[in-house]
Amino acid sequence: MRTTTLGGTGVRVTELSFGAAGIGNLFRPVSDGAAFAAVEAAWDAGVRTFDTAPHYGLGLSERRLGAALRGHDRDTYTVSTKVGRLLEPNPEGGRGNDLAHGFAVPDTHRRVWDFSSDGVLRSLEASLDRLGLDRLDIALLHDPDHHAEKALTEAYPALERLRGEGVVKAIGIGVNQCALPARFLRETDIDVVLLAGRYTLLEEEGLAEVLPEAAARGRSVIVGGVFNSGLLTDPMPGAMYDYAPTPPDVLDRALRMKAVTERHGVPLRVAALRFPFGHPAVASVLSGARSAEEVCDTVDQLRRTMPSAVWDDLRAEGLLPRRVPVPAATPAEEAHRPKEESWG
Questions:
Q1: How far apart, in whole angstroms, are the C-alpha atoms of residue 111 and residue 86?
Q2: Could you give the dihedral angle defined by the CA atoms of residues 192, 197, 201 and 203, in that order, rounded to the nearest 10 degrees?
Q3: Is residue 149 packed enough to be buried (19+ CB in 10 Å), middle (13-18) or exposed (0-12)?
Q4: d(Cα 136, Cα 121) in Å, to the nearest integer?
Q5: How far apart are CA 331 and CA 12, in angstroms?
Q6: What φ, ψ does residue 183 adopt, rounded to 5°?
Q7: Rounded CA gap, 216 and 42, in Å?
């Protein structure tokens, strides 16, 4: 699988990154066996970049990911986790569940927002313990939307010091909005932005500031949420979009996109996975999975040949703005491109 280096950090990421929220029981339970099989399927497919967070299943994602990776050489893979939410024992002690936050786990702990310098150190120490690792590759500020100033003045400097000491190799921010990462790119020395849901076939907001800023400064972007909560896997009435019911005009656009890609024999999710790589700042696409079958399907779709005529037709039908860059065709894909007739 193709790999890229994040900025000037030396941290390598594969073109597909494994998002471990699913194995933290996102929305519904996943067995330990299924979680392990999902990570192993990703490994067997060549994926070497894994993203997790304390938030995912109140630490369950980190514990399961660490256990699944334990048999592999530590120097051969990249792990990313996040700071900003500390996990503290719940005085109520696990008598309920965490579904209010999206995870089907007992509410044994509660999340406490903390973007202080001390909070960053405590968070990373706890993450290393849950993962069973002695070092991290990437540490990201997680959703500091309502804590921007503290994240800039306390959490970021703490991460910068840890990077300088070699505790982490790369630092950045993980969000599902564009204004804040653009600010961090301008005002700090972060290496990477994990941008969720804001640069997809249906959302080009990232192209306004984040992607150009990253490219101009030699930084990297990992794009998550490429399916917009599942709408771009198989659009249909009742599908979710950004974790809410899909507006009729958005559903109509997705259905028209699906008609274009399928006209060329390509599922819509192939175009959704490949689309972000049209921009030079994009180093990897992050896709979550909760089973080996989901992993294998995602890898298969990413590897499929997609004629460049798909992008041409999406533009011709007004479904993709012409200013939006698209991936360059591989030789195999270019062979499917209709040849212009010569009148000489």
A1: 6
A2: -100
A3: exposed
A4: 13
A5: 25
A6: -65, -45
A7: 32
pTM exceeding 0.90: yes
Tokens of 9: 């950090």
The burial class, CB within 10 Å (0-12 / 13-18 / 19+), for 172 is buried
Smallest CA-to-CA distance from 113 within 80, 157, 145 is with 145
At residue 344, does pLDDT exceed 70?
no
Q: Catalytic one among 56, 156, 199, 241? A: 56
pLDDT at 197 over 50: yes
22 closest CA partner among 67, 56, 68, 49? 56
Residue 11: φ, ψ to 5°: -80, 125
Query: CA angle, 11 as apex, 167 and 150 as ends, to 5°?
Result: 55
Percent of the chain having pLDDT more than 70? 96
Per-residue buried b or exposed e for 304-318, using 16+ beta carbons within 10 Å of the residue's own CB: eebbbbbbbbbbeee
Q: For residues 123 and 109, is the Cβ–Cβ distance under 8 A?
A: no
Answer yes or no: 56 catalytic. yes
pLDDT in tens, 151-184: 999 999 999 999 999 999 999 999 999 999 999 9
